[in-house]
Amino acid sequence: MQNLKRKVEYLSGQENDINSQISNAERRPGKRPKKEVEVWLTNVQRFKDDVQRLEQEVVGETNVSSCMRLGKDIAKKILEVQELHKKGSDFNSLMIDEDTTGRLLQPLTKDFVKCTKARNTENIWECVMNDDVTKIGVYGMGGVGKTTTMKYIHNRLLEEKGKFDNVYWVTVSKAFDITNLQSDIANAMNLGNCLNDKDETKRASELHAVLDQQKRYVLILDDVWERFDLDSVGTSLS
């Protein structure tokens, strides 16, 4: 346990250094921490809480089987703290320009003037602005203007000040694959190589943790050809 505690102390020092660098960088306008850095900081705090609970279990424990179980838990935590150390040391940079996350306008076709007059476009906009609506499905035959309509909604959202923290656009491949979609969403959020795990469930948990930190956001998934579970991707609305 003492070995684990020493490693946690080192991790806390690393955490403090990164927080100090972030505080200094945030004094410059238009800068904010990368999402992968925020995820790392959240994971560090969660890890420290877990170690604290584990330490409380160890104190006064004399049962042989319980001691063996706790010993295995400690060994796992030592491996975990080493991974967190490495991840914290691998950051090339901590900050990103505020206006580079989800701020790229989607190009519109020349005939969109007609599309903007469609009643469906305003209906979609009203749903997006409705706080009681959390998910919207836009469907229809190919070529009727679904993507063009959503590009208009996307661009209009970027101009809407104060309503949403971020707006993300992700085009879903026809050859649907959950792992690829998770990576595409992470790239749209500028998470870099945050999703290193190959396990879909773990990747979904990491992605959900990042999205959960954002108070209000819009994620537009374009060109979806088949039904899939949002929970399996990590974009649960719960």
Arithmetic mean of pLDDT? 79
The coarse overall form would be elongated
Strand content: 5-15%
Compute the number of strand runs.
4
Question: Main beta sheet: strand number and arrangement?
Answer: 2 strands, antiparallel
Helix content: 55-70%
Q: How do the strands of the widest beta sheet line up side by side? A: 1-2
Oligomer: single chain
Radius of gyration: 22 Å
Contiguous low-pLDDT stretches (5 residues minimum) are none
SSE sequence, one letter per element: HEHHEHHHEHHEH
End-to-end Cα distance, whole Å, is 37 Å
Structural class designation: mainly alpha
Count the domains: 2
Count of DSSP-assigned helices? 9
Could you write a compact summary of the structure shown?
The chain is mainly alpha-helical and 238 residues long.
Question: Helix and strand layout, with pairings?
Answer:
Blueprint: H1 2-25, E1 31-33, H2 35-58, H3 64-89, E2 95-97, H4 112-116, H5 119-129, H6 146-159, E3 166-171, H7 178-188, H8 200-212, E4 217-222, H9 230-233
Parallel strand pairs: 3-4
Antiparallel strand pairs: 1-2
Helix pairs in contact: 1-2, 1-3, 2-3, 7-8
Description of the molecule:
The protein is mainly alpha-helical and 238 residues long. It folds into 2 domains: 2-98; 101-233, no CATH class. The chain is built from 9 helices and 4 strands; from the N terminus they run H-E-H-H-E-H-H-H-E-H-H-E-H. The protein has helices at residues 2-25, 35-58, 64-89, 112-116, 119-129, 146-159, 178-188, 200-212, 230-233, and strands at residues 31-33, 95-97, 166-171, 217-222. The chain has a two-stranded antiparallel sheet. The protein has a two-stranded parallel ribbon with strand order 3-4. The longest helix is centred in the N-terminal third of the chain and has 26 residues, at 64-89. The mean pLDDT is 79. Pfam families: NB-ARC. Keywords: Coiled coil, Plant defense. One of its GO terms (molecular function) is ADP binding. This is NB-ARC domain-containing protein. Residues 37-64 form a coiled coil.
